[in-house]
Structure prediction request, 95 residues.
Amino acid sequence: MKARTAHCKFCGCTDRRSCAIPMRYEPTPDDPGLLESFGDEYPIVLMPAGSVAEFTTPCHWIAPDICSAPACVEKAYRERCAWMDAVIAAELEAA
Prediction:
């Protein structure tokens, strides 16, 4: 049997061709655990438009059809919230 290829329903990347998440280093927050793990610089995902990436990291899978790219996670969250709003509205209407 052929293995199923994961495919992100939002950006279209696959487990064979992942998308690149832009990142940069910032000073590590004053937290003993983080300082011990990362040293002076802490990797963060770039969110503000126009920011310049220092490096990229490949996405990974947070669900069978959603990758970990920030835009995809945000779309999945909005989709789930809309679904929950519809369920709650239907329950209130039925009551």
